C-alpha cells in the first residue's frame, strides 16, 4: 500500500482528493491537513510515503511546509505539489524545497494516481529537460560558477555524478559515460544525497547549479 497525506486548506478539495485516493486499489490516506503547519506535524508523526501538497495555505504555505517536512522527517516522504497556479517560479521553489513533482489541480484522476506512484517509487515527476530549464531560469546568477565549500564532503566520483545528474542524464547514461555499472551510480548518488542532505533528484539538479558546478548557458560534456 502507498500511504498518502493530503494537505489542502479547501475542505471540499481536500475531501475529494482523499476520497479519490482511498477508492483506488493500492493506496491509503493516513491523514488530512488543513494548512502547512498541520501538514508538517502529520508528516513527521504519520510518516506517509507521499504528501500531496497544496501551495497556497494559511499557517505555512506548501513550499515552506515542503522544506520543513524534508528537513524534519526521516525517512523524508516524497512531496507531490498540487496547485492551480501554473507558474514557473512556483515550480522552481517547490523543487528547490525538495518536492519530487508538480501537478495542476485540473489533472485527471488517473494521472494523479499515476503521479503518486511515480514519486513514491523515488522518481521525479518533471522531465529532466524541464527541470534543467527551470533551474537555469531561476538559479541566482551571483552564485553561478562560484566555488563553494558545500561540495567538500564529496569524493571526486560523487562530484562528477552530481554534475552529470545536473545535466539531466539518467543513471543508465551516467553509467555508460563513466564505464561503471548502474548499481554503482545509484550507490554514489545515494551517498552524495545523504552527505548534502538532499531528498530528491530534482534537488540534486538544483544543487549542481547553485553550487556553481554547472554554469547556465555553458555546454556540459
Walkthrough of the structure:
This protein is of the alpha/beta class and about 220 residues long. It folds into two domains: about 1-125, 3-Layer(aba) Sandwich (Rossmann fold); about 135-210, Winged helix-like DNA-binding domain superfamily/Winged helix DNA-binding domain (Arc Repressor Mutant, subunit A, Orthogonal Bundle). Helix content is about 50%, strand content about 10%. The chain is built from ten helices and five strands. It has helices at about 10-25, 35-45, 60-70, 90-95, 110-120, 130-140, 155-165, 170-180, 180-195, 200-210, and strands at about 1-5, 25-35, 50-55, 80-85, 100-105. It has a five-stranded parallel beta sheet, sandwiched between helices. Helix 2 packs parallel to helix 3 (about 60-70) and helix 6 (about 130-140) runs parallel beside helix 10. It is globular. The termini are far apart. The relative contact order is 0.11. InterPro entries: CheY-like_superfamily (IPR011006), NreC/VraR/RcsB-like_REC (IPR058245), Sig_transdc_resp-reg_C-effctor (IPR016032), Sig_transdc_resp-reg_receiver (IPR001789), Tscrpt_reg_LuxR_C (IPR000792), WalR-like (IPR039420). Pfam families: GerE, Response_reg. This is Response regulator transcription factor. Keywords: DNA-binding, Phosphoprotein, Transcription, Transcription regulation.
TL;DR?
This protein has 221 residues and is of the alpha/beta class. 51% of the residues lie in helices and 12% in strands. It is globular.
